Amino acid sequence: MLISLTVPYAPAIQTKVLAYFDRDGRAEITDAVGAIAGRFRVYLVITTGTSLLTGIASAAWSYSVGLELALIWGILNFLLNFVPVVGNLVGIVPPVLYAVIQFDGATMPLVVLAGFAIIQVTISNFVYPALQGGGVSMPAIVIVIGLLFWSWLWGFAGALLAVPLTAAFVIASQHFASTRWIADLATQDQSKAPAPNSDG
User: Fold this and answer.
1) Distance separating alpha carbons of residues 170 and 184, to the nearest angstrom
2) Residue ranges per domain, the chain?
3) Are the C-beta atoms of residues 141 and 87 closer than 8 Å to each other?
């Protein structure tokens, strides 16, 4: 909602902000904004794609092992995949608990757990990083801190946007000498922060 309210005023806000800087400063600000916008677009596309893949795989696995409400588990994991770190873990719990109720014994719940765990680990640790490519790579601790902060600030909407907002902050920090140390600390390569991704 906040984004939808501010979008119509974005050009005017940009003009007013740039007015406070000299030519070099305006160029630097413009580059930073462009990099952030590009990174945000890439994040939305990749996260939506991997979330859809997670949802389809979750529903397919549930159906293949005879777990009821397969479509529900697929939709649930699709939505929770947008929440970094925590969403992947939370998405496993409901179907496993339901499997405990539906099936006798521990075998099938363990099978359900194994399948969901493999799906989450594969997509989160292999598919997503491969698609992300040369974007800003942040350690898990930075993502968790960002998740806690933005969730505290904006609730569930903040949790959904935690990664792109944190990445935007890191990219913006990379563009200015006085804040470049923040980007160095907040990225995987401690010796050198990656160049901002300016896709688009």
Assistant:
1) 9
2) 27-185
3) no
Of 90, 85, 91, which Cα lies nearest the Cα of 145? Answer: 85
**Distance in angstroms (rounded) separating the CA atoms of residues 92 and 77:** 8
The DSSP annotation for 30-90 comes to HHHHHHHHHHHHHHHHHHHHHHHHHHHHHHHHHHHTT-S-HHHHHHHHHHHTTSTTHHHHH
Structure tokens at 81: 């995949």
Token reading at 188: 């995987």
pLDDT digits (tens, 9 = 90+) for 57-76: 999 999 999 999 999 999 99
14's tokens: 């940009």
Single pTM value for the model: 0.70
User: How many angstroms separate the CA atoms of 154 and 143, rounded?
Assistant: 16
How many angstroms separate the CA atoms of 141 and 173, rounded? 18
Give the whole-angstrom CA distance, residue 106 versus residue 104: 7
